[in-house]
Each structure stands twice: as C-alpha cells, then as structure tokens.
Amino acid sequence: MVYLDNNATTPLDPAVVQKMCWFLKEHFGNPSSLYPLGQKVKALLTEAREQVAMALGAHRSEIIFTSSGTESDNLAILGVLEAQPEKKEFITSTIEHPAVIETARFLEKKGYVVHYVPVDSSGLINLEFLSSAISSSTALVSIMLANNEIGTIQPVEEVVKIAHKYGVPVHTDAVQAFGKMEVEVKKLNVDLLTVSAHKIYGPKGVGALYLKKETPFSPVIHGGHQEFGLRPGTENAAGIIGFGEAARILQERWRKDRDRLEKLAQKLKDGLEKQISRMKFNGHPEKRIKSTLNFSFEGIEGEALLMALATKEIYVSTGSACSEEAEEPSHVLLAIGLSPELANSSIRISLGRFNEEKDVETVLEELPAIVQELRELA
C-alpha cells in the first residue's frame, strides 16, 4: 500500500497508540470527580493540555479541547459573534475549509453580512480587498493558515495587522499547517487558532481551539464546567491523551519530517512534470506546504484517476476529505481560476511521516501509464 492522502488523515504514530492503550487499560475515572481515581485522569489531561499548548507556544489555560477541527472552527466563529451581538459582519476567504465556508453561509441566513476575500491564481488572498471590507461593524476575520487542497500559505500576520487596527479579532484554521510548518501563536498574533489531532498522527475525534485571553467569547453550548466552562461535556480523555502525545512527538521532529518530505515531494513533482504532458500544478510555487501536491490532468476525470490508482493500492484524493462525496468541482480550484472541467480533473497527493522514497518511485512508475491509458479511453 502507498498511502498519499495524509491531508485527509494520518496514521497513528506507534507511540500514540501505546500511550492511549496504557491509558485505556489503567484509567477510567471521570476527571470531574473529586476522589483520587478522577483526579489522576484530570492530572493527565492537564499534562496533555500543556503538551498541545507548548507545541503552539501558548499557555495551557488558552487551550480548549473539542471533538474535531470542524467543531473548533464553529466554536471560534460562533463564540466570538455571540459575544458581540451588535456586530453583524464577518470576513473570510473564498478557499476556506467547509467547516468555515458552511458556517459563513449559515451566518448569511441569519442576517449577517459576509465578505469573501478573493484569491489570485496561486491561492493567495487579496489584502487590499480585506482592507476595504473591514470596518468597526466587523465581528471577526477568519483566514486559514495553509490551504488543505493546494497548500498555499496565507499572510496571516498581515491579516492580523489590518484587523487589529479596527479592534477586530482574527481566527485562523491551522489544521493543515500544524506539524508541517512553524505554528507559533505569539508570532502570528492571532486571537483564535484551530488544530486537530488526526492531522499530526494522533487519534480522530479530538481537536483544540487556542483562545487568547481577553478575546470576546461566549459558549455556544451549555452544561457543566469542563474546558473552563467554554465547551462543556465530559472530556474524550483517551483522545486528549493521544493528542498530547502526538503534540509532544511533533515538537521533537516536525522540522526533520518537513525537510525530508519536501525533498520527496520535489522529486515526485519533477518526475511527473517530466513524464506527463497537459498537466497543471495548482498552488503557489513557493509559499505553500511543500508536501501537498495538487495536479490537474487535461482530458481525465479526477475520480477516474483516483480509482485507477486505488487498484494499484496507491491512495490519493480529489480534494478535501470533508467534501469528497460532493459532485461539484472543488470550490478552492474554482476560486483560483480553473474551469469546472479542469477542476474536476484534479487530484491531491499529500505526503506524511511514514512515506518513503520507494512510495515516490512507485507513483512515478504507475501514474504516467495510468494517465496515458485513461486519455486513450477518453
């Protein structure tokens, strides 16, 4: 098997599996219980919160655990807007993850004015548009740090400078950036930031929201006192423990992983461009997560290419895993100017920690022949 869909999800790191199995066997107490059985679990959750916070350069009191990146995005946006009912404008970009795009559409139905910042052909946002759209009526700006489909990295620090002039908080979805580049909340100066465990070799079903102190915020669900009263509900303790371990490992090796994967991805990109004609690379040539490669192949349906590769046990995707079942072309590829036909002819290859050079060689051997065969059939 050659697994090249690490932007959709990553395999569990063996150390994460070991830590979670230990926890599940040894600890079952409710962390809200006052007796020692529960307090031991609470202490382990605090340790995991510290590990995630350290990986982001935050304080543990600024980390709220959730069920996913999607929940964290929703919590960030709705929580800030709920705290500022007098402000009825929201700004995001045209290439956000569905967790943000669909929330924006929901807000429009509720009477909010949503400004969608356009992007250029490489996927970079238009800062001039942002500057003209923002005002004292803006409740929040949400711009992703790195795009999940094409890897383009946004100038979030510049976004913050613009927004903070108007006293507007900034949220960034850093789910695809975390573990692939430096994600330092103090350097970015963002007010809220979203991450997810299963993108960094941790378990599915657990995410986190960084919430800077003093940021206007109100809970959107109500119940107990968990997560500082901002996200009530009994914690997914095993998932959080796994997230903490994944974050700990990340601090030790993300730069090593990044450098190695960039070389493998460049070899793959160069090899495919030499062998395959009428193929377009999508994304910024430099300002991007280099381990994410998105290509369009003229005259071929991306889904047909994906399935043909799957018969060889090579697994890639056609875009966001959260919208794979949709028949419409990728909104990201349309936003950067691709025609619907070309957008539908695209696949995304995303490398991860457990990929090796032999995986790249397998793709370079199999993919050109598959493209040729599909074009002949077409």
Low-confidence stretches: none
CATH class descriptor name of the largest domain: Alpha Beta
Helicity range: 40-55%
Return Rg in Å: 21 Å
The count of helical stretches stands at: 12
In order across it, which strands form the biggest sheet? Answer: 2-8-7-6-5-3-4
Instruction: Summarize the biggest pleated sheet.
Output: 7 strands, mixed
> Beta-sheet strand percentage?
5-15%
* Average pLDDT metric: 96
Could you name the CATH homologous superfamily of the largest domain? Type I PLP-dependent aspartate aminotransferase-like (Major domain)
Total individual domains = 2
Q: State the separation between the terminal residues, measured CA to CA.
A: 27 Å
The SSE order reads: EHHEHEHEHEHEHEEHEEHEHHEH
Structural class: alpha/beta
- What is the third-level CATH name, the topology of the largest domain? Aspartate Aminotransferase, domain 2
CATH architecture of the largest domain: 3-Layer(aba) Sandwich
User: Which descriptor suits the 3D outline?
Assistant: globular
